[in-house]
Amino acid sequence: MDVTTLTALSKWMEDTDLDEVTWRHGKDSISLKTGNIQSESCVPVSRLQPVLSPSVGIFRSSVPGHTSNLQEGSKTDKGAELGWIETGKNRESVQSPCAGILKIIAIKDGQAAEYGQPLFFVETE
Amino acid sequence: MFKKVLIANRGEIAVRIIRTLREMGISPVVAYSQADINSLPLRLADKTVCIGPASASQSYLNTDAIIAAAEITGADAIHPGYGFLSENADFAQACSDSGITFIGPSAETILKLGDKAGARRMAVQAGIPVTPGTDVCVTPENYELEAAKTGFPLMIKATAGGGGKGIRVVRDMASLKNELQIASAEAMSAFGNSDVYFEKYLENPRHIEMQFVRDSKGNTVTFPERDCSIQRRHQKLIEETPSSAVSEQLRNRLSRAAMKLADTAGYVGAGTVEFLLDREGGFWFMEVNTRLQVEHPVTEAVTGTDLVREQILAAAGEPLSIPAGSLAPHGHAIEFRINAEDPEEDFRPGAGIIQNLFLPGGPGVRTDTHLYTGYSLPVFYDSLIAKLIVHAADRGQAVNRAARALRELEITGIKTTVPFHMSIIQDSDFRSGHTHTGFAEAFIAGIKKNKKQDLTNN
Question: What is the rounded CA–CA span in Å between residue B139 and residue B151?
């Protein structure tokens, strides 16, 4: 196979969504693979970090009588207290694992949460 | 009656409890640790709550988390199963403080009977013979005198112990001081309490236990004795009922003793009084287990009862479904504990994925298990993975049925104690019912010796 045909073939492959082509002509045969094939094993990357419940109990976003100022889209710092879980008489603080934007609030004040349940999602900066 | 019950346990016993709850029209809720997220009880329950990470101290032993789980799911009662918090008086108290019914006796009863020395005092009060031993904790000051009073060989036992843990046998005064120090240290690390006491050690006794249920009106039912003499390191391996060493007359005496003790304690719920039976037919009080026992299905088989149901009725303040009195055994039942342990490697526990599972069936066969094909067995908990229970007209037929069922049973992917059970039931002494608490260990030692000889001969 001459270089011109090979170039034309590989150019043509780039315009299609083919990842692999085998070309045969008489005794000659050649297989071409594009570099795109790696993208199959590519894991989608999310910058959203879940904030997991540290225990089972009732979620509290603020002390009774006060409203929480947490809002989706607001900034949060690493270690910032986003609320707490009441388990009997114990309280466990729910803290942001990283700095970023509070993207999703997945729990409401007074709602029950299991151990390990995602309560918030923070988008890392 | 309860509408929703939370099960604060895992594995086969969680499955067992769910079955009765369903039959009673009660909604089952399961509290689980992260390690059990793919377990069978979760599939069978109406609701599940993750209470913590794999470590039992942060999940199945975490009182606050379990009570919070009951509260958020609206459960009106908690069944503790066996092990974990089932005999924990503080947990029972915490339940009642939160307005949740603990399915078991009251915190006060658990406290009274859970303390081994206190239970012995209550047995004496009920007129039940106790093995000679100390009424008080032994101290560096009184141990020699107390040992002389008890007599050798003696056992050093932890006041807060159970399940065969923290027991040391001492045969003479010379080794006593050293053993006592070890036992105290072991008790401290295992139970957080270094108190120990002495008890006379009986050579090759039988382990006989009496199941009872008592309701809040004071109606007591006693069941035929269970013989749990096949043990390894004080852990039961095979249990059966009735015992080949107990006559009807002896059964009546044991039943009366259990009934008396239940009444003396003002017990409400299901419990078991454990005795040692010597070769002359004398029985000695050991301890009371204030919970459902692993081996309860053999009793259910020969009496046609559901002990979990009776537990729930008693806890709900309702009358038992069986009239007060002593039940007679119908036929003979044997339970084999199938553990994820390798009998070839000194019963070393293992874990892994269940490749293939086939459970035996046919007449008189019951299997209680949480296994399924593809289940990944976690390493964090007890090695009990299944219980095979056989029931037949008499002991001989039950042993034959067991041989047939064990042969059918297939669990691949992990090592189990099935081969051990298959070989022990071939033993002529086992077949003739001549067993005692040292039997299994002697049997295992015999196999090892034969193997060594085979190797040297080759």
Answer: 17
Residues in chain B: 458
Q: With 0-12 CB in 10 A as exposed, 13-18 as middle and 19+ as buried, what is B398?
A: buried
Q: Which fold has domain B4-103?
A: Rossmann fold (3.40.50)
In CATH, which of 3.40.50.200, 3.30.1490.20, 3.40.309.10, 1.10.260.40 is domain B132-200?
A: 3.30.1490.20
Partner-chain residue, chosen from B50, B63, B98, that has the shortest CB–CB distance to A115: B50
A65 touches chain B (CB under 8 A): no
> Does residue B157 contact residue B199 with C-beta atoms inside 8 Å?
yes
Residues of B taking part in catalysis: 291
List CB contacts (< 8 A) between A107 and chain B: none
Q: Does B92 touch chain A (CB under 8 A)?
A: no
Can you list the domains of chain A with their CATH numbers?
Answer: 3-39 (no CATH), 48-124 (2.40.50.100)
- Tell me which chain A residue has its CA closest to the CA of residue B52: A115
pLDDT tens across B304-340, in order?
999 999 999 999 999 999 999 999 999 999 999 999 9
d(CA B96, CA B104): 11
Task: Name residue B138's amino acid.
Answer: V
pLDDT tens digits for range B33-61: 999 999 999 999 999 999 999 999 999 99
CA distance B45 to B43: 6
Give the gap in angstroms from C-alpha A65 to the nearest C-alpha of chain B.
Answer: 22
CB contact under 8 A, A116 and B50: yes
**A with B: how many residue pairs have Cβ under 8 Å apart?**
45
Check A115 against B72: CB less than 8 A apart: no
pLDDT (average), residues B259-269 = 96
This complex has an ipTM of 0.82
CATH 3.30.470.20 describes domain B206-449: yes
